[in-house]
Design a protein that fits this description.
It contains eight helices and 19 strands. It is an alpha/beta fold. The two termini are about 20 Å apart.
Length: about 350
């Protein structure tokens, strides 16, 4: 992020501030700094308008217009709960400052919803066999839904929630995905993990040694979803889960009456019953300490991981996705995603 577009010096003029605000495309806020880059206040077009209403003039010093009781985050205390409160208070952006009050970064709420302390692992090494011939020369994650690659929706959704450490595991046509990541978004810290052979849907976790955070998000790259990652993480903490798997409802409608019987004697029956189950959605939150359960450099699926969690008497919880979700695994799903994409709310 270019911080300069959000900054103005306290010695600049009100006209300078108006010009700079007008050049912005989203947040429409400036943070006023002194000569030492210490933030002394915030300034919006509304602050300037109120100043004029109260009798200030265009040639008055900028300090008279600024809002000095501004909200901010301290360095190393970028708490997602605080950020959520700021967002709910309709703030447009929040600065992060160091101990001396100097600006370090800015969270623009038009682009960022949260700052979750999570490292993401996106599994993108599959063959995409069921989508051939589309995947003969292009890896499935780079197929486009609408005007955008499938994996790009996942990159952007994670980034929206402040998940900037994104590990991408690759195998089949992996060099294309690696090239795609280069220059995609400078604010996402991509790390490409090359599988020498396909290790399943979780085996590549054993290849990653430099996780920054204590919680790992593992997901398939061929999902299209607007899952609320903040609520997902919040539920993970509230449940004190060791592993949480996102789930989607799966309803079974039986067209016949079903008997409740005892030794062939019908005790009761239910006409055309409906049964609701929850299916694995391919997105997981895992405590980093449990990665020791992943065997090294061998095929190991996420379902194997879940079995290990259960056998180890750890807490495995599921989280029902309330928004949109589809696994683009076959031509019908791919076609459905193309029809749905214009109706999915990613904001």
């Amino acid at each position: 992020m270019d911080l300069n577009k959000f900054l103005i010096n306290i010695n600049d003029s009100v006209l300078d501030a108006l010009i700079k605000i007008n050049q912005q495309d989203s947040a429409l806020i400036l943070f006023v700094v002194d000569t030492s880059r210490v933030v002394v206040g915030s300034l919006t077009d509304g602050d300037i308008r109120r100043g004029f209403i109260n009798g200030l003039k265009l040639d008055d010093c900028l300090e008279k217009f600024i809002f000095k009781n501004f909200s901010f985050l301290n360095e190393n205390d970028e708490n997602f709960v605080k950020l959520k409160k700021f967002r709910e208070a309709k703030l447009k952006a929040v600065p992060v400052i160091d101990k001396k009050g100097r600006l370090l970064k800015i969270y623009d709420f038009s682009k960022i919803k949260s700052i979750l302390p999570i490292d993401a692992v996106i599994m993108a090494g599959g063959l995409g066999s069921r989508l051939k011939p589309l995947t003969n020369k292009i890896p499935k994650p780079l197929l486009k839904v609408g005007n955008k690659e499938i994996i790009a929706y996942n990159f952007d959704r994670l980034y929206q929630f402040g998940i900037s450490n994104q590990f991408v595991t690759v195998n089949y046509l992996g060099e294309q995905i690696e090239l795609f990541c280069i220059g995609y978004n400078a604010e996402i810290n991509f790390k490409i993990i090359k599988e020498p052979q396909f290790y399943g849907t979780a085996g590549a976790l054993s290849l990653i040694k430099n996780f920054k955070n204590k919680v790992i998000l593992l997901m398939n790259s061929d999902l299209l979803t607007n899952i609320d990652y903040e609520d997902f993480y919040k539920s993970f903490l509230e449940e004190n889960a060791d592993m949480m798997v996102a789930s989607v409802p799966y309803q079974i409608n039986l067209p016949y009456a079903i008997f409740n019987e005892d030794n062939k004697v019908v005790k009761s029956f239910k006409e055309k019953p409906n049964f609701m189950y929850y299916a694995n959605a391919g997105i997981y939150l895992i405590k980093k300490e449990l990665l020791k359960l992943v065997p090294k450099e061998t095929v190991f699926n996420a379902t194997d991981f879940m079995e290990q969690i259960i056998k180890s008497n750890k807490k495995l919880v599921h989280y029902p996705i309330r928004g949109y979700w589809i696994d683009i695994g076959n031509p019908d799903d791919f076609e459905k995603a193309q029809k749905d994409i214009s109706h999915i709310d990613f904001d």
